[in-house]
Sequence to fold (874 residues):
Amino acid sequence: MKRNVPLMVAIIAGYVMILAYFSPYTEGWGEKVMVWFDILAAIAFVLGGGNLLKVHLKKVSDRQAGWAYSVITVVAFLVMLIVGLGKIGVHPHEKYAHMAWSGNFSAIGSPFWWLYEYTFKPLQATIFAMLAFYVASAAFRAFRAKNFEAILLLGTAFIILLGRTAAGPYITGWFPDWIEGLEADKLSTYIMEVFNTAGNRAIMIGIALGTASVSLKILLGVDRSYLGSGEE
Amino acid sequence: MLDFFRNLDRRWIFLLMGLSVAVPILLQWQFPETPSALSQAVFDEVEALNEGDRVLFAFDFDPGSEGELGPMATSWVRHCCEKKLKMYFMSLWPVGQQMITDNIKRVIEADFPHLVYGEDYVNLGYKAGNEGVIKVIISDLRQLYTTDAEGTATDNIPMMEGIDSIKKMDLLVNISAGYPGTKEWVQFAVTRYPDDIRMVAGCTGVQAPLLYPYIPEQLPGLLAAIKGAAEYEKLVMDKYGGENPDAKYFEGKRRMGPQLVAHMLMILLIIVGNIIFFVDRKRGKRS
Amino acid sequence: MNRENLIWVVLFVIGGAILLGRAMLSEHGMGKAYVKAVEKDRVRTSEPAVYPNEDEQDITWISADEAREQGIDVEALGDDDHKQWTIYDPATLTAYQAEMAVDPNQTTYQFSLSRSVGIWFAAFMTLFVLTFLIKDNPFYKVAESIFIGISAAYWMVVGFWSTVTPNLIGKLSPDLVRGWAMPGLSRDEPVELMYLIPLGLGAMLLWRLSPKGGWIARWPMAFIIGVFCGLRLITFLHADFLTQIRNGIVPLWVTDTAGAFDFWESLRNVFLIVGVLSCLVYFFFSFEHKGIVGKTAKLGIWFMMITFGAAFGYTVMGRIALLAIRLEFLFDDWLWLIDPTNKRVEAVVSMLGLF
Fold:
């Protein structure tokens, strides 16, 4: 019950998807299963939120180090959740003005929108922007032309960095006709279309085979690691 | 001197990077753009469509990558408005629906107020399920999209008439910041139905190299990062900008200013780092 | 207080003083948001011809102007039949100033306190995150904690309203959803009891939160994993294996339209094929990388290095663009040092003139 049923569920669901790909008669099954999958994906957000709440509330109740930050997380979570699920400050839909819940939950001007626009958006964008600083630091400290392979990597990075801005044509635009193919912008395009394509195509083929073999192992019941230890 | 660089606190590098981006923004430096073949291919794909043709926009990005992808989204919507195409917006990213709303406000409602919601454009919104959504809407759109983002039944939206799946679209435009995104659209839509679905995409710099193997067979055009956005923007504005174009349509070009200076800084940092390395190696050999 | 902390405190005080001065003492200020008020005046109508037995869902609302055109005495209607509210669209200072120049008493364009506070809050959140570059500190941790809480709730809310409501509750009980949150939902939407399955699986998934009976969540997890495997097995083989092999089959002897040999195109195709094959040989570990295999694998490594170099270049490119948009926000929306999109033509001063 604890291990065999989930094993069967995974195998049946997997084979339904495979059958749905090959036969028009079973395509409808695949669609149905996919819709259920999509609904579960939405419910997984609830699981994520619930888990976050659980972890941080435990941290607060145990007075673990940094518990005050957990309080902030919990408060931010609950405020966003309440204004979003409660559609607080959202006007009704124009066509259904008598129904208070008919408006769009993220309507411009609502508290949910305010929290998105002035909190979520700047925070997420800045956290991603921080990587620009770290990539610069890493380039200074770690990018060393130690051997031929490293020189190839560095050289390509140089050409791409030059060729993908106006600096490339400006610095290398004077090259005579017979070597114009070596101008930074043209060379960077060539590298992307030929060498990068070849390398990434090989990686892609490798990943495809890896994904297929992992999937097969699960669908054949060889790999059962996702079922856990079986004790709980 | 070398000792100074060898023991350089990384915060000086952070400061240099900050200044290399901040100064060009403050001084509003801009540089000319020359469209590449891939950007031209994207432009040509949209140009080849006729008035009333259907375009599905999948806005699979969020504020974390808006700096790169926002400008191309703006230009793309503008291009489709100019071509009088019917625009269907959707997203596989939860925050993507905000990106859709922003673009509708910024471009359609501001500069094309005569376009009617439900007749010329529709916001289908976000659905959870990543590639699972593509898998469903590729054969039956209404299984998932029973309503648009505003809660109106899809059956009651005039431009949804006759649209039972996204195979009915004349072009699919995907703006992608990662997973799920262009790769999944290529895998689940284009590769499965190569005769029915044609797609062009815009993506972040991180993704761009990974997508090249799909070009041109599975992906005829690609706008790679902010450079691709600036190139496409130039193509669109050169043709449709008019005499006094709005500055919001030159966001990509504007952002290429700091890009150039920061790229030069990166090259300089790598060179300095390697000079230190070689000097140290030489000294090490001697001793 | 050690020297480093003292320097930071002095820098913060100077920065704060400049900000305050610019915001309060300068004529134009900074970090202010403006909105355009749009009045919504709606009147209730019903369509008995379509739905003889009118219930709540059949009621639609039209604008008051339309109602007046139809001869309805709007002013005589009660609160249940006539509703008014105002929404506020984003506007620019330029538009506000233009309207004020025409009519100083106009109220259509207004200064928005809540959105101005929002801009300041967003600016401080941006700066809080950036302080991590100096070192880990409480400001960063506060910003990080807020972000974690807000984003988890955001995804939950979006998941609930965009998928759970229409695609689960709306399938099991369309009338409930129509009468509550989505009045526009089609009346032809049938009750589909099959959706009890995802509902049950969803409930089992949430069981993971319970301290006991964790195995219950294995069923939906197994379902998700099984679907994923079935889906990916075929798709990866089709799109990324077979199709890539097909894309890689290109002529090594390329001729142009006139039939003449095209050396550069041929060389390009040779590189493509040799590159893919040599990289694949490098990935192949069943043979020892010696002799011809070793040399081919070495060539594969070189191709890979070029690929990684290209990836590095593009990654740098992306990261810088992300930083640029944040700094643009600080300089444009908050500090009003630049105005690239002409939002407030008259207010922007030279970027060096702080006051």
Q: What stands out?
A: Chain C has a mean pLDDT of 88.
